[in-house]
Design a protein that fits this description.
Elements lengths: L2 H9 E5 L3 H18 L23 E8 L4 E10 L10 H5 L17 E9 L6 H9 L4 H6 L13 H15 L4 E6 L1 H8 L6 E2 L4 E2 L3 E8 H11 L1 H8 L8 H8 L1
Parallel strand pairs: 4-5
Antiparallel strand pairs: 1-2, 2-3, 3-4, 5-8, 6-8, 7-8
Length: about 260
C-alpha cells in the first residue's frame, strides 16, 4: 500500500449517510459551505432558516460524508442523484440546467437507470484547494487549459487530494447501486482537481452560468478506473480501497497483460 493510501486511512473516514441523523449532518455541511462560507449564488442563507440545505432531489439521492479522524468533524459531503423509477421521465438537474451536445444521446453510452449525477460536492474551506484554483482561473486562465490539463507523475502535488477522497465515497455508493456512468455539472477548478488523479470527466456541452460558471460532464466508471489503475495506481488504491470497490478489476489486469 502506498503513502497516499496510508494518509487516507490515517486522516479520513468515509461515512455513508444511510440514517436520518447522518442525512441531517449532510444538510448541515452543505449549508455551512454553500450558504455561509462560499456564499454561492442561489444559496442565500435566508432560504434555509433551519440551517439545512436540501432540495427535492434529496428524496432519490444517496449521500456520503467525509470525517476528519483527529477531530471527529465532518468536513465534506457529496451526493449521487439516482434515476427515479417512479418518475422515469424526470431529468437529472444537469440536463435541466445545461445544454448537451446534440450527439451525446446518440452514443448509446447513456443508460439512465445505471447513471447517477455527482452533485453537492462540497468541502469546508480550511480543507478546500478549489479556492486557490478558482482564483487562478478567475485571474484570466485559459478555459481549455483549465478543463483539460492532466497532472503528470512529475507534476503531482504533495499530499492527499480531498476531491479524490470524496470521489472514493462516490465509488462506494456507485458499487452498491450498480451505477456505471456519472453525470456532473462542475465548476472548472473542481474538474481540474479531479483530473490530477486520472478522474477525467468528458465535457458534453458548453459552459453555462448556473450557480457560477459550470459545464456538463459525463464519464463511464469503467473507463475512469481502468485509466487510474494504469496511470495513477496510488490514487486508484484510495478510490477503490485497494480494489475492494472496483467491479472491473479483473478487466484492468487483463488489459495490462
Amino acid at each position: 500500500m502506498n503513502e497516499l493510501y496510508n494518509s487516507f486511512q490515517k486522516y479520513f473516514e468515509i461515512v455513508i449517510a444511510d440514517t436520518d441523523e447522518l442525512r441531517q449532518d449532510v444538510y448541515k455541511v452543505r449549508y455551512k459551505v454553500l450558504c455561509v462560507e462560499e456564499r454561492i449564488p442561489g444559496f442565500d442563507p435566508s432560504f434555509y432558516p433551519d440551517g439545512l440545505e436540501k432540495d427535492d432531489y434529496d428524496s432519490h439521492s444517496i449521500h456520503a460524508l467525509l470525517r476528519f479522524r483527529s477531530s471527529g468533524d465532518f468536513i465534506g459531503t457529496v451526493r449521487l442523484i439516482l434515476f427515479n423509477p417512479s418518475q422515469p421521465e424526470k431529468l437529472f438537474p444537469v440536463e435541466q440546467n445545461t445544454q448537451f451536445n446534440a450527439e451525446f444521446y446518440n452514443t448509446g453510452n447513456f443508460q439512465r437507470q445505471h447513471t447517477a449525477e455527482v452533485s453537492r460536492f462540497v468541502v469546508v474551506n480550511r480543507f478546500n484547494r478549489r479556492r486557490e484554483n478558482r482564483r487562478r482561473s478567475d485571474a484570466g486562465g485559459n478555459e481549455n487549459a483549465v478543463t483539460s490539463e492532466r497532472r503528470s507523475s512529475s507534476d503531482r502535488r504533495s499530499g492527499l487530494n480531498i476531491a479524490l477522497v470524496l470521489m472514493a465515497g462516490v465509488m462506494r455508493m456507485s458499487v452498491e447501486h450498480d451505477i456505471r456512468s456519472w453525470l456532473s455539472m462542475m465548476d472548472l477548478p473542481l474538474n481540474r482537481l479531479l483530473s490530477f488523479d486520472g478522474l477525467d470527466f468528458i465535457p458534453i456541452g458548453p459552459p453555462v452560468n448556473y450557480h457560477g460558471i459550470r459545464r456538463p460532464f459525463f464519464v463511464k466508471v469503467k473507463d475512469v478506473l481502468q485509466r487510474m489503475f494504469k496511470e495513477h495506481h496510488d490514487a486508484w488504491e484510495v478510490m477503490t480501497d485497494c480494489g475492494k470497490y472496483d467491479p472491473f478489476l479483473s478487466t484492468h489486469r487483463t488489459v495490462l497483460n
